[in-house]
Amino acid sequence: MTAIALLNSELDPHLIADTLLSVEGADPDVKKTIWLPALGNICSEWGEEEKLWHISRLGRKSFFLPNQSGVLSFAGVCAPAAKFLDELSKAFRNVYQFDQSAKVDSEFINRALNNTERVQDFWLIGVLVDKDGKREPYTHNTVKKIETEHFGICYAAGSGAELIERLVNSADQRITAGVWRDATHISVTEDLAEHISCEMLYRESDIRNGVEPGTPFSIGCGGFYEWYAVLPQGVKPMRSRLDIHVYFHEGKLVVSRMYFCEQIQNNTLRFVDSLLPSQDYYLSIYTLGLDPVEIPLDLLIGDWTTIVPVESIGTLIGSFLNAGESVDCSSKSLLSGSVSSEIAGKLFGEPMNVNRVRVIVTSNGRAITRSIISQPHEPSSAQVKEVGGRVAVCLSQKVMAAVVESVAHLIMKKAPE
Question: pLDDT tens digit string along 274-293?
Fold first, then answer.
């Protein structure tokens, strides 16, 4: 159970993958709890008694191919997918000894699949880049094909494929209707990739998640969504961003969630037994407070609005193959914990500029998503820094103006009956 997708596969390919690793059956762990960035500590078991499943941990399901050959993501059962990647690595190792400019192509992958058992138990979606920089979509097993006006041909697989399809089609319809103003600094496809990552994190924090049909846990996907742009010269990782969830109710402006998301490259990992480095990344997600924080409206007149949550929790997500455990996804190993004052000082003693902010504002039962992106020559949209031993977020006037504008737009609309 998972959700992976390839957007605009031919012209501007972007790959998306969730990080939820699930196992059929009851959780053998006595505590039966799991930490997730959007919800905190929750029950790990889901589903009905006869179809019980549990969340084991979070793990990256995307793999950068050597020599800038592209990237693959998998959905489905972990063990045969891991066996396939091991076969692919062995095959490339043999070729690399004789040709250090070798690339991974579709024939290469197909041979590795032929040497792997249970290949029908998992799906692959990815983009391959040849020696001339030509990009080619790759899929294994039956995947959902989505044809759009503004995002070209897209593909999705896993239990969350239909949910991804609805988000893609909805974005396509908005652009057709002329709603495109927020993220003009980036392509529509990159904006969609980042929007899906932000939107799915927002949906996961909903108290109805897993209870109502169509929510992420009810279909077995979530955790966090990584995304990558695939360029002719190779794969470009996800950009750092700040997600803010705000609601306006009874005259009060309240922040319900804030996340700071970034990627950290693992420079020590090698894809093969050689000096060839792998583009491997850890996902770092800081949940900046799980308790709501009210923003006094008189703060909106200042240059910056500073929010200091009581507690922040950091989560580090590596590849599911690098967990040091069995590949059946049964391990509960996960690097997460409260950010102490000492760590806050080390990480954010020097304010960190954040050029990408995604804001989701809700009021009257409706929601608006806004993207605020600052270019390198412009002042940052936000900062993450240490204040009094805690991780604090400073929001620019531009961000707060977007929040106020969104609230004003929502309260003018009649709540749905």
Answer: 455 556 778 999 999 989 99
